[in-house]
Amino acid sequence: MPDLNDPDSPRFKRVLLKLSGEALQGKVGYGIDPDVLEAIAEELEEVVALGVELALVIGGGNIFRGLKASAAGMDRTSGDYMGMLATVMNAIAMQDALERRGVKTRVLSAIEMKEIAEPYIRRRATRHLAKGRVVIFAAGTGNPFFTTDTAAALRAMEVNAEVLLKATRVDGIYDKDPLLHDDAVRYEQLDYIEVLSKNLHVMDATAISLCRENELPIVVFDMLNPGNVRRVICGAPLGTVVAPLGFDRPR
Q1: Fewer Cβ atoms within 10 Å of its own Cβ: the N or the C terminal residue of the chain?
Q2: Helix, strand or coil for residue 136?
Q3: Number of independent structural domains in the chain
Q4: What is the pTM of this model?
Q5: Domain span at residue 122?
Q6: What phi and psi, each to the nearest 5 degrees, are found at residue 190?
């Protein structure tokens, strides 16, 4: 049980962290920035040291975006499969960075590629988490027309995560893009219906609807500030919470 009087005690036992592929590219603009990868791995190592069971879903937008390719004329299905392969590359890179720090990690892919990743099996994933291994879910859901946000929501529910953490470039959900509008207002807490009705582009509608149906809370926070992953897991009031009406933050 967490110690609610200790600010360094984790408030969640099992979490799923969703990282965008763009987070890995840093200032390089494409691919993977080794310094950013190492910095993220260091943060995740701290989280695992707290005894938190950690699962990851990493997007592939730093390498390939199927939706963008589709808009340029490529078949949507082909583009989405290429995007899934990009997530596998990111997953392997993150696995390598974590294991060089001594963190035991498993990559589970929704598309079978047994030479480099285990096939996704729910019971296997939960067993790895229970043993303290970081589980990285790759290749999305294995189906086209679904984003990695939806994959994150689905996997979080399948492994009984207590919360879905969405790491972004901004410190929460705003009524409009804070990078473009100085007068943008940040929300501290929203319910799922508000996110959908106000068309707030934090996650796609399918992911939000899945979380709503299963009452899975979402915390959207700034990944660029070092240490924020640990702070959020330990209950610091960072970012924006998307949860059922009446939900209280862990602390």
Answers
A1: N
A2: strand
A3: 1
A4: 0.92
A5: 14-242
A6: -140, 155
